Amino acid sequence: MAASSFMGSSSRLRVGLLPSVTPRLGRRALAARASADGGGGPVRVRFAPSPTGNLHVGGARTALFNYLFARSRGGKFVLRVEDTDLERSTKKSEEAVLSDLSWLGLDWDEGPDIGGDFGPYRQSERNALYKEHAQKLMESGAVYRCFCSSEELEKMKVTANQMKIPPVYMGKWATASDAEVQQELEKGTPYTYRFRVPKEGSLKINDLIRGEVSWNLNTLGDFVIMRSNGQPVYNFCVTVDDATMRISHVIRAEEHLPNTLRQALIYKALGFAMPLFAHVSLILAPDKSKLSKRHGATSVGQYKEMGYLPQAMVNYLALLGWGDGTENEFFTIDDLVEKFTINRVNKSGAVFDATKLKWMNGQHLRSLPSDLLIKDFEDRWRSTGILLESESGFAKEAAELLKEGIDLITDADAALCKLLSYPLHDTLSSDEAKSVVEDKLSEVASGLIAAYDSGELGQALAEGHDGWKKWVKSFGKTHKRKGKSLFMPLRVLLTGKLHGPAMDSTVILVHKAGTSGAVAPHSGFVSIAERFKILKEVDWESLQKQQESPVESAVPAAS
């Protein structure tokens, strides 16, 4: 069955073992079936992080796919904490993971913080349940006590390696007599619970993403489900949890695919119905290796601190292995719920492109309602101490002017400081400005200084855009300039730059910054008055000579 047939109501998942099984399990084919909608019951999916570190972007994508599948099918999204690694699991890490999921907007229906009908939702609180089901397996003969020491197990690995066969269990305890077992129990010898695996046959599943996947059972060997200290092993915990929580679909990373073999055997031995499986591809680094810390930021928390929006993260993560079949790449979470289907998830690895994520963040940033966007910019500038007041409307005008060039809210600081700066010295000395300087820039500068000294320019700026338009028109007519020959010299002389946002809005904003006291000195702000002081000190004759034969600067630097 192809993964794409999942949406059909008559499609079936089959997990089967060939008839050759151990006597205690019965000499018949082991099979488990579930319909594509979870056996006709409600859709229930789960995300089960281990609280041993931060929420990785790969884990966040897995959580997102589970969330989207549940919401698109009217099902339940369950959060379960797999904290059986007692040495590495921490409460702080658990809280961070839950916080990151909440930040992404992936609200869960059942979990450790809100409870539910199938709790507890932490594995560390479910030990009694694991022991109960381990005892059932013991009573049925599906597992046995294994008293092998670590030294004995190591010898088996060496022997298997010499024989060039898989390192399977070759100890005697699978066939030991009751008397031998009792003797070890009386001596107090530590033991594990080991699952009996059929020596022949194979197992097949129809993965909803990867299609048919099969394993030969003779490569597995009897495996441990309970350690000698009484702690259950991961695969046993997961199977009991998914079964007793009535999980209908297990959507998880492909690195868990090999675990499916052990889990399928446990499902059958306990008489549980199998869920459907969907194994999502890994997220890769640009060099096609597995994404790791050496490639830069990899956790959701890091991207949050860097200024990324949750809606942008959700949008980008969804596109790592999924698409709706169109060229569209911009989705809100509601769009994703409406369009998501598991059969459109690609089984190939998806490359994490930080540049594209930043671009996408810019798209979402600029799609915010205007008042919210302005508030975000204003809050950012206040928090970094650049903005001192907001009554004048300076922050609103600055946000509107700068938003097109900003992809991250944290970039707003540098963008505003750049806007307020006046690097006239560097600009006039650059090769790019040579043609502007040679176009009689000194004459335009003289006229501009005259307009400033007379108060004419200051009055125009005080009147805003209408006053600026009238003044520019008059200035261009006086100096017989228009278009680029007028606006490029004015941009250089008034902003100190060759490029930037709209010149009229920039100059008016600089004027407002000076009259309102809206920005802090450490922002690098150079007022209109200070700009003209610098402009008046330019030695145009020396500048001309410098460009003809560069030796030293002729323009005093802005203080």
TrEMBL record:
Gene3D superfamilies: 1.10.10.350, HUPs. GO terms for biological process: glutamyl-tRNA aminoacylation; post-embryonic development; reproductive structure development. It catalyses: tRNA(Glu) + L-glutamate + ATP = L-glutamyl-tRNA(Glu) + AMP + diphosphate. Keywords: Aminoacyl-tRNA synthetase, ATP-binding, Chloroplast, Ligase, Mitochondrion, Nucleotide-binding, Plastid, Protein biosynthesis, Transit peptide. The keyword Secreted does not apply. It is an enzyme of class 6 (ligase). Residues 396-509 form the Aminoacyl-tRNA synthetase class I anticodon-binding domain. Its EC number is 6.1.1.17. Pfam families: Anticodon_2, tRNA-synt_1c. GO terms for molecular function: ATP binding; glutamate-tRNA ligase activity; tRNA binding; zinc ion binding. Residues 43-359 form the Glutamyl/glutaminyl-tRNA synthetase class Ib catalytic domain. One of its GO terms (cellular component) is mitochondrion. It is found in: Mitochondrion; Plastid, Chloroplast. Belongs to the class-I aminoacyl-tRNA synthetase family. Glutamate--tRNA ligase type 1 subfamily. Catalyzes the attachment of glutamate to tRNA(Glu) in a two-step reaction: glutamate is first activated by ATP to form Glu-AMP and then transferred to the acceptor end of tRNA(Glu). This is Glutamate--tRNA ligase, chloroplastic/mitochondrial. It comes from Triticum aestivum (Wheat). The lineage of its organism: Eukaryota, Viridiplantae, Streptophyta, Embryophyta, Tracheophyta.
